């Protein structure tokens, strides 16, 4: 069971990592092209709209990835200070609230997609708005999946009183120390 | 009453470690349900999409990416050598080097944790070897990294500018003088410690050595030249400077032959994830902001405080205290997104310059990074130094006092942060 979960986590992480990297590459290329063009006295009419859409996509695909690695900004000092039984109950409530929000967001996202049928981008009329705004329901569903996949690890660490932020810091420090050792 | 209930729900959710972005969004949904009914829930999708498409925030992923590439690109070692050649002859030279390099380096990436881990893991072990206590080494690294939050480019400043509807370029310029003053103050405290504990100098001042290290670090200086020169000179906007910074960071790292595709992919990934975490907060704040606007909470707060006092110094004192306390418990991005939209009408009504106030907010949050329970920068420095956070805090309090003095100076002598802004923009 653990092996299956680990494997699923790895697959989800790799997939989302590649999507996030490709979106970042795309946004970087678009911004650099637009800046270079502007400095040469030209401007792309589609730049503002396309760059803003790419930022939205990075937000939601990257957020799902951050949920898988539990990297969203939180505050766990109070949670870790309360007695174990109450703490785990609070974890359940907290996780339930997160899932509830993304269920609502996915539902609202699908409703908006129906309404937007036939609309296109202002600067690029051949791109349907349904395509660009699909990131909301898809992002919400991905977030739910990632939150559930990372729950067992979060549950186990919180039960043992380990702060996720501190664990992340330790990991970061170890990586840098290893890099320095390699450099000699 | 409704506002109190929603605020209580928000605090309760944050206390049980619901990610702050989601807690904020859920509080907004509660407000939406209470004021507009269940039929309005479709707004969630619209607000969460609009909030994540703020064009001015495209500077964030670009600066984050430039910082991540710099972290991976071998720039740190060269900067350390160069700064050491300039100020390494002073007693406690390694502490001075630490502060000097931090100003250049930290906070660019938006992840102070990554920056402190990268730079601290090189400098702290060296400092310990040279006789510095681990507490002093961690304190110098941590406080100087937090000061760098006000040196451009700064992600919290970009967020503040977007939240307050003010100029990010002016805010960047406003940070320069206080940042330099703070660095001088931190170096002075480090020097006092160095005299007290008889800490060594690093290297005698030597012109050929300075020239050699300067030439080695020269490509890395293209980054501040592009960012500061471009913005100060009015050639580029903050977003454009961020795009150019990415090109420069890649070019410099390729020049140093210390970056490959795997490093670049890692940098893109770190940049993407950092951006997503901040942008989800921004998007969620639109949901909450909609409710606050409908309920006219910021206006009520402004009226309430202005009825109590209309003196600028008193309002700034109240807000300083408020942001200082908030900084103890929230990360800078969350604090800015949560609080700035609420207090901006008060700032406007009191006639306080929003650029001036932006610097005050950012400095408060820099101090907050040094004060537990939420003190990610301090915790990272302690983890690198293998030091106890409370023991480090006893030493760090002297460095934090410098930051507090800079804060008071900037709060009550507005010309300190605004002098360059007036010169370049007004």
Itemize the secondary structure elements and their pairings.
The complex is a heterodimer of chains A (184) and B (426).
Chain A: H1 2-39, H2 47-68, H3 77-81, H4 84-115, H5 129-133, H6 135-159, H7 164-183
Chain B: H1 2-15, H2 20-36, H3 43-51, H4 59-72, H5 75-87, H6 93-105, H7 112-129, H8 134-147, H9 155-164, H10 168-174, H11 176-196, H12 207-217, H13 222-232, H14 238-255, H15 261-295, H16 297-308, H17 312-329, H18 332-349, H19 354-368, H20 376-385, H21 389-412, H22 415-425
Summarize the structure.
Chain A has 184 residues and is an all-alpha fold. Helix content of chain A is 80%, strand content 0%. The model of chain A has no long low-confidence stretch (mean pLDDT 91).
Which stretches of chain A are low in confidence, meaning pLDDT under 50 for 5 or more residues running?
none
Kindly report the average pLDDT value of chain B: 86
| Estimated helix fraction of chain B | over 70%
Please provide the count of β strands of chain A: 0
Distance N terminus to C terminus of chain B?
Answer: 44 Å
Ends apart, CA distance between termini of chain A: 41 Å
**What is the number of helical segments of chain B per DSSP (H or I, 4+ residues)?**
22
Molecular structure report:
The complex is a heterodimer of chains A (184) and B (426). With 184 residues, chain A is mainly alpha-helical. In chain A, 80% of the residues lie in helices and 0% in strands. In chain A, helix 1 (2-39) runs antiparallel to helix 2 (47-68), helix 2 (47-68) packs parallel to helix 6 and helix 4 (84-115) runs antiparallel to helix 6 (135-159). The longest helix of chain A is centred in the N-terminal third of the chain and has 38 residues, at 2-39. Chain A is globular and about 60 Å long. The model of chain A has no long low-confidence stretch (mean pLDDT 91). In chain B, 78% of the residues lie in helices and 0% in strands. Chain B is built from 22 helices and no strands. The longest helix of chain B has 35 residues, at 261-295. Chain B is globular and about 70 Å long. The model of chain B has no long low-confidence stretch (mean pLDDT 86). The interface between A and B is large, with 70 and 73 residues.
